[in-house]
Design a protein that fits this description.
With 543 residues, the protein is mostly helical. It has 23 helices and six strands. It has helices at residues 2-5, 11-25, 36-49, 53-58, 74-87, 91-119, 125-136, 143-146, 151-168, 179-193, 200-209, 216-241, 260-269, 271-279, 283-302, 305-329, 343-357, 366-412, 460-468, 471-478, 486-491, 524-532, 535-538; strands at residues 417-420, 424-425, 428-429, 452-455, 502-507, 512-516. Helix 5 crosses helix 10 and helix 6 (91-119) packs parallel to helix 9 (151-168). It starts with a helix and ends in a 5-residue tail after the last helix.
Amino acid sequence: MRAFTQARPPWLAILLPVLCAALLYAPGFGGWWLGDDLTNLHHFHHWAEQGRLWRESFASFGQGISVEGSAWRPLSILSLAANQALAGSHYAGWYAANYAVHLANTALVALLVLRLAAHAHVDGELAAALAALAFALAPTLAEGVYWLSARADGWVTLLTLAATWCWAGPAQSHPRAWMPLAVGGPLLLGLLFKESAGVFPLQLALLALAWPGRVGATRWIAVLLAFALLAAFFGWRAHLFGHAFWVYAAPGEPQAAVDWLDRLGAALASGMPWWRALSAGGAPAWLYLCMLALAFVLAFLAADTAQRRIALALLAAGGGMALATLLNLGGFLAHGEGGRLSYGPIAWTALALGVLLARPLVNRPTRPLAVLAAAFAITSGALVLWSELGRVRNAQDGLAALAGALPTQVRTHPGYSLLLVPEHAGQAVLLRNAQGAIALPPIQTEGLLHRVLPTLPGELANRHERIAAGLLTRFEQHRFQHLLGDELRQLYEPAPARWPDHYLCWSMAEQRFLELPAPDPGDAHAWTATLLAQLPRCGLAER
């Protein structure tokens, strides 16, 4: 067959999915910062101003990304530092990095399907295009593209797919002696981006066990090297944090016993509410799931034995990655956040679909039906994705409007204001960690925290306690332009209480500030309850 022997890949099968993904995600260049983006932007901007950008970034190789958790992701930090150095505070320059990685992953899915199909002696040209489209336009993984701080999932996928490409090698040729290094290098980089790359040695071992021909010593050496790198990674994590596996535990903190079955059950139960929130329901969302499942069943029936073995290994690889994520998280958030975590599993699942859809020597009647079902799934998924990205752009516009209106609001309201701000809009995280970055450079020309305190609804009880201890007094005294190190420590020094003169909230629906009645600060419970009672008027959720 032509697909087994051609010297060059069929470029249409690669370029068409890349072009579709490029067009669908192109409007994102007009987007804006979200969630942790604001905090990261503030930190890297400040470090660059102080001439400490690279020093602080390279320090991440010897420490976690926060004192509260055990996440070690130094290359993620370096990638953000590179964005600051190259693009400054221009959003499009940061988005371009995520965009390019997603397009590269799309091309890699197509190339890998072609290579795996060749090893299985089946024609993978159409299958490669369909698999790459199924990955590129999958609605669940979009968060890994539009949310700049979620880029690690895209990079881990890029590096592990590249390692798999090197491991498989061209059909009808023996692996080169240096191939294990071409596998180990990308894996090492992936581990430096995010701990989720630690699943890759198991994924590679599954593929080796299902390999249609002779695996050979070189490929097994690459698998063993991958496990050796994983062991070294766990050893380094244990050295840094006192435990090898836990990501969200404080360093050195003892772990409570976990009922893994209960945890898995809770995670699975959270899946459907999460999907409804992410996709906004509707016929395309359910058509996408049904047609995708049908495509797998029909393609499995049409495939030959070698295809089925490889596809089952790839499905297990994607499913294992998803299982590790579920057990780590314990559940998905009901408002739809977390789609970025499906980035890697979707890539491996798309590879499995592509291998099954490849045309065997004996073409069974169910294959055209499988191709048709896959086409319907891809189309309905693209509709869900288009709607999702539209909602994200609306959320970004609302947050940009808040940032733009803040200086005028402060100028026209003398005194100090407490401002209730939204934590998320649908699945898009707006303000969460250190939400004060919305009032600091480079988002603002001049820091405004001496005049306004952005506050999440869920933080109100803690805010009362901190204001009573002198938080606003410290802000007025020091007029902070950043909040790092010594500045944060100064905020916790006791001072006379100074209560806000104005209470406001930001309405995303109306894109304006709303005045709220001033509660009595003498009763902490009543103060909090009075402000919480105003949340429906503001269109805000408590959590």
